[in-house]
Amino acid sequence: MKYTTHAAILIIFFVVSGCGIYKKVDARKVPVNVNDRAAKNIEEGRSFKLFDSEKTMGGNFQFASSNELWRASLDVIDFMPLSSVNYSGGIIITDWYTDNTSKNESIKISIRFLTNEVRSDALDIKIFKKKCIDNLLNCKITEQESVLVQELKKEILKKATLYKTSDQSKKKKKNKSRFYSD
After folding, report:
1. Rg for the chain (alpha carbons), in Å?
2. Is 0.90 topped by the overall pTM?
3. Which residues make beta-bridge pairs with 82?
4. Which long-range contacts (CB under 8 A, 24 or more apart) does 9-15 make?
5. Is residue 129 very low, low, confident or very high in pLDDT (cuts 50, 70, 90)?
6. Which residue among 12, 22, 80, 105 is least crowded, i.e. fewest CB within 10 A of its CB?
7. Range 50-80 burial, b when 16+ CB lie within 10 A, else e
């Protein structure tokens, strides 16, 4: 009995010491700040998640306010009424829009987001033109391959770039103030 308890204690000691619990650590290589230490552990793969957010029932969503392309697109076409807006599907569709100069012609814009990155190939923009004869009775709808598509894309990308640089400078200021306040 005495030998089995000693053997069991010895086996437990070897198992626990093999886990790396008693590992020497160089204090110069370990960040002092808790958040920095956690970020370093995540980068090195020495972390775990209790609740994996990607496997929850609702899915993994980003907020629309954090997406520069989305915000810029809505700002550029804010004068038009919206028919369908689906952030998770990545599409904005406007309703038919007519200005006061041409009552028999109206346009509809469809913006599809192919990626969240601010790039020239991130957007697929289509403009449809509806031309009616006899007060909306005899209408013809055609897709427009005009300069307006390129101008709209250019304006959205320009505004998205401004939003992105503004957001990055806000983050830098926030991080600097947090660094100096700690």
Report:
1. 29
2. no
3. 94
4. none
5. very high
6. 22
7. eeeeeeeeeeeeeeeeebbbbbbbbebbeee
- Kindly report, residue by residue over 9-59, the tens digit of the pLDDT: 878 776 666 555 556 667 677 777 777 777 776 776 665 555 544 444 444
Query: What does the chain come to in residues?
Result: 182
Distance, in Å, from the CA atom of 180 to the CA atom of 30, rounded to the nearest integer, reads 20
pLDDT, tens only, 58-84:
444 455 566 889 999 999 999 999 999
- Alpha-carbon distance 134 to 139, whole Å? 9
Say how far apart CA 6 and CA 4 lie, in whole Å: 5
Three-class SS state of 83: strand
- Looking at residue 124, its amino acid is D
Region for 125 from its dihedrals, namely left if φ exceeds 0, alpha if ψ lies in -120 to 50, beta otherwise = beta
- The long-range contacts involving 119-126, CB below 8 angstroms and separated by at least 24 positions, are 120/153, 120/157, 122/69, 122/157, 123/69, 123/73, 123/153, 123/156, 123/157, 125/149, 125/152, 125/153
